[in-house]
Amino acid sequence: MVATLFIIGGGSAAGGVGGTLLPDYWQHLGAVFPPQHAITWCATALFTVCATPSAWPHKPTAFDFHAAEGRSWRLSVDGDGACTTRIPAPTAATGEDSDAAGASVHGTASELVLYLYDRIQADFLHVDGDAGLLDLLRAWEPEEK
């Protein structure tokens, strides 16, 4: 899903700026990243590459990304575009508000980075909610403004 936004935002698959965010050898190998680097790259991708002022052409929704290392982010998409915010990580005590996000993606920070850079499919991660929204996100091509 975020990989979709990488393509939309001119990511590595499209030959744009997303390709400069990961060292070249990691882009092509699909390697496991050191956890702290992966967390930083998740945040960088979600806050910069996935942000757009282009209107989401579907019903407004949110995509939550939860790293096993304890960090979580919400990508909100609506008529004003796409933006990311940091959210508390779900815990066994608090659970996760399933109504808050249309789809939630869970994995290690390294797996989330690989997903965001379109190196692995959502099938390799745990997805809660409407997985079809991830397909809409991948297919979305925001207009440049």
Low-confidence stretches: 1-20
Radius of gyration: 14 Å
Instruction: Count the beta strands.
Output: 5
Mean pLDDT: 79
Helix segment count? 5
Q: What is the overall shape?
A: globular
Largest sheet: number of strands, sense, barrel closure:
5 strands, mixed
Strand content is 15-25%
Q: What is the share of helical residues?
A: 25-40%
Please report the distance between the alpha carbons of the first and last residues. Answer: 21 Å
* Strand order, largest beta sheet: 3-2-1-4-5
Q: Could you spell the SSE succession in H and E letters?
A: HHHEEEEHEH
Structural class: alpha+beta
Pfam families: MDMPI_C
Domain MDMPI C-terminal: 37-135
Protein name: MDMPI C-terminal domain-containing protein
Organism: Streptomyces avidinii
Description:
The chain has helices at 2-8, 24-29, 35-49, 109-116, 132-139; strands spanning 61-67, 72-78, 81-87, 103-107, 126-129. A hairpin with a 4-residue loop joins strand 1 (61-67) and strand 2 (72-78). The radius of gyration is 14 Å and the shape is globular. It is an alpha+beta fold and 145 residues long. It has five helices and five strands; from the N terminus they run H-H-H-E-E-E-E-H-E-H. A five-stranded mixed sheet has the order 3-2-1-4-5. InterPro entries: MDMPI_C-term_domain. Residues 37-135 form the MDMPI C-terminal domain. This is MDMPI C-terminal domain-containing protein.
